[in-house]
Structure prediction request, 208 residues.
Amino acid sequence: MADNQFIDKFKSKLDKELERIASNSNSFVFDARYAAITLLKDRNYNSTIINQVEKEYENIAKVERKNKEELKEQDQRLIRHIRQIPVKGRGKYGLKNGNELQVRRLNEYSFQVRIEDHFRSELAPVIICKIKDDSTYFCYPFLYLKSILIFGFGGTVLMAILAFLGYVKYEPFIFLLPLIVAIGLQLILMPFFYFLILYFFRKRLRKK
Prediction:
């Protein structure tokens, strides 16, 4: 167990103190107990607790390896699912809450992921998923450009028409306001929606 911070802390302790630490799973975290037996072994101290803690370490490492393998299999499954979507095509996956997960393939390696709820989602940001290999991908938040085109530039055109008809004054800020609001709202919502979309993306597409 590399970089165990407890080894330096426990170097001044007596053998019996280290043995007591290694034996007490209720009061000490496993890293502390493993550091204790590491020091005992370095001192050639003979105790049955050394083998017991080493056995615990083997079991923990085995569980971690299994979890890592399962996670890798789930990621491979997700990648296989979205790779079935044709370029410029869209995959739609129903969610239990009635909403819809939409995955649009932008090119060979990039996908736009969003949640459609037929109302608020039009104003929400999206995430971009990029495939690195058969088992690795990474995601990051991004602006929903369609929303900006509709509400931002569309609103700007509407303001221009209203100004032409004399309902609003000809001021640059008025024309830019819809675009500023559309982008600003997505930027505010981005941290929340990133984790929300990522959660449902993984939960839905990691399934067998």
Observations:
- The mean pLDDT is 89.
- Residues 91-205 form one domain.
- The first helix runs from residue 6 to 10.
